[in-house]
Amino acid sequence: MKRDAIGSIRSTQGFVIDTTQNTGGLQTSGVDISVGYRTGLDTFGIQNMGSVSASFVGTYLNELKITAQKGGPSVDCAGFYGTTCSGLAGGASANPNAKWRHKLRVTWNTPFEYAWMSNVGLSMQWRYFASTDLDATSSETGLKGNFAATDAKLGARGYLDLLATFKIKDNYSFRFGVNNVLDNDPPLTGANNCPAGPCNQNVYAQMYDSLGRFFFMGVTADF
After folding, report:
1. Chain centroid to CA 73: how far?
2. Which residues neighbour 8 within 8 Å (Cβ) at sequence distance 6 or greater?
3. Is residue 112 within 8 Å of residue 120, measured between CB atoms?
């Protein structure tokens, strides 16, 4: 920014220099897995009891290289969290970069039909996030640094969710559920490794359940 004699930027002598620059880059590699399956329970010798379906979605993060400035060194944030690898100083993600995460859902599509209710389904989901190390614990020059021992690792977390769905008179779809049934606490980190925005009150709440066990319900009406 260049100002004129009276401090203004609204004259021919006062203006803003706003050039386009390539200030960094990101390179990532990994494997995504998605599998689905559905079958009638009569396949297992259980007659007239509907069907069961299962879906699995998993991600393995092999590499997450960040270059904060063009021509500068890159760092690999796969498996790490912290001020560099979770949103600041060219960080690639607002969340910890766990090397493995997955969701597994199993649903029982029941055969139960009543005059006023149909399409009754019961499902269970397992969400899992592998442990993640603090970026300052890395041996890489661009990451390693001093750290408190209590911040060295965010432990692995698994969450169990339950959901029930059904329809009434073909017009109203209801859902009732409980997330984090076992009320697992989220992993905590110190203030020095809790960047504002992605981390709130020592928890990366966009990734881990910060409220504990959570009940919900909803209805959709079709007209």
Report:
1. 27
2. 14
3. yes
Consecutive H or E run containing 204:
none
What confidence tier does 18 reach under pLDDT thresholds 50, 70, 90?
Answer: low
- pLDDT over 70 for what percent of the chain? 88
Shortest CA distance to 112 belongs to which of 39, 165, 42, 161? 165
Average pLDDT (94-101) is: 91
Q: Which 3-state string (H, E, C) describes 9-69?
A: CCECCEECCCCCCCCCEEEEEEEEEEEEEEEEHHHHCCCCCCEEEEEEEEEEEEEEEEECC
Residue type present at position 129: F
Model pTM score = 0.81
Identify whether the C-beta of residue 136 lies closer than 8 Å to the C-beta of residue 104.
Answer: no
| CA atoms in the 13 A half-sphere facing the CB of 170 | 2
What's the CA gap between 12 and 174, in Å, rounded? 64
Type of residue numbered 58: G
